[in-house]
Fold Ammonium transporter AmtB-like domain-containing protein.
Amino acid sequence: MSQFPQNLLPDEASPEWMNKGDNAWQMTAAALVGLQSVPGLVILYGGIVKKKWAVNSAFMALYAFASVLVCWVTWAYRMSFGDKMLPFWGFPNTTLDQKFLFEKAFLGSFPNSTMVFFQFVFAAITLILIAGALLGRMNFYAWMMFVPLWLTFSYTVSAFSVWSPEGWLAKMGVIDFAGGYVIHVASGVAGFTAAYWVRWTKVDKGPRSIFPEQHYVNANSAALLWMGWTGFNGGAPFLSQRPTLRVGVLNTHICTATSLLTWLTLDIIVFKKPTVFGVTQGIITGLVCITPAAGVVQGWAAIIMGLLSGSIPWFTMMILQKKLPILKKVDDTLGVLHTHAVAGILGGVLTGLLAEPKLARLFYLVDDWQHYIGLFYGLQSGRARAGARQLGVQLLGIVFVVLWNILITSLICVVIKLVVPLRLSDEIIEKGDESVHGEEAYALYGDGERHESYKQFNAYGFAA
């Protein structure tokens, strides 16, 4: 027979306000999002980078996942969703108090413990996405400092501003269904900005090509990301029986499939070769683009978004990347500027154009005909001013997230540079995992242990 703690009565363990179905789905959705990071992105990164960086890429992802969790429960969750300290920031506070964990969350019919975990996996994947821009270049010790600093001073600000009921953008009516702004625009801009600072700390032979000379994309990891997005967008409504959940999940897959086919078609027409790497980019851009709009647009709109997310980021990555000087100079390893920032901004703008007012009101549980209406629907219904305002709020949210992340990410990199080098030395870059961690991926038995050459480099990544 189960025993309850002395200070916890049975009705407190399962209070009347808690919906067991909602709680079960929210935990399932959180698990799906967590699996996108570990093992999803761990495998994806290890498959795309050269063999000599497979261990380092896994290290960066696993460290970020663990570090974010500790910081999240200690102070960062409350800064994102707690009591307002500033219009864009909450007071730092712990979530480890038992009384707090059993109380009802600020939204939904489940306890804080469920909400804390659900929001954690979103915060964690954001940092791991940033790592995609820095693989094989950033000093691991610098990365260890970067993760908690960026989580504290960037992610919490975007999350509070956009998602907290007390956030200034949330009060203005910005629509970000599941993280197009907070996660994807932020990670894309921050990743590119950090890559800029890492690139310019020491001049080398130049940035790598978006298509490495030797790469292999594990299609299973891309498929895991795709299916895991069912929890990513499916968990956003916080209620398992809301129609916006069902619509959001279906639209997620419609947009992604359309984006994949669009990217594939462009690759075949222009480069005459269909590649798994290209298809993977099409999957990611489709998932990212639909995220801010998933449950507030109709199916035909999801197809339009898929066509655009499979073509505009394709153009910026495959064409502009080779022509614009700033893009050629910055070593964004996996092109997160294109797959996340460009696709996320595109999704935010399209949300301002295509948000269907009835679906939006069902999601936000309001009866407000002056907010949450896309411009096209505003023009159609004679409420052009309301639609124009919504598009303006969407653009304002994009500008805020972009500028804040450029500023804060730059400041963090400058501060870290005063303590440890941001960039690995040329000697270590030449050797890869063997020099950074003293081990290799895919080594034969007995060949993956520490090597003597590991002793040649000190803890800060420079030759001893």
User: Anything to note?
Assistant: The chain has two domains: 18-424, 427-456.
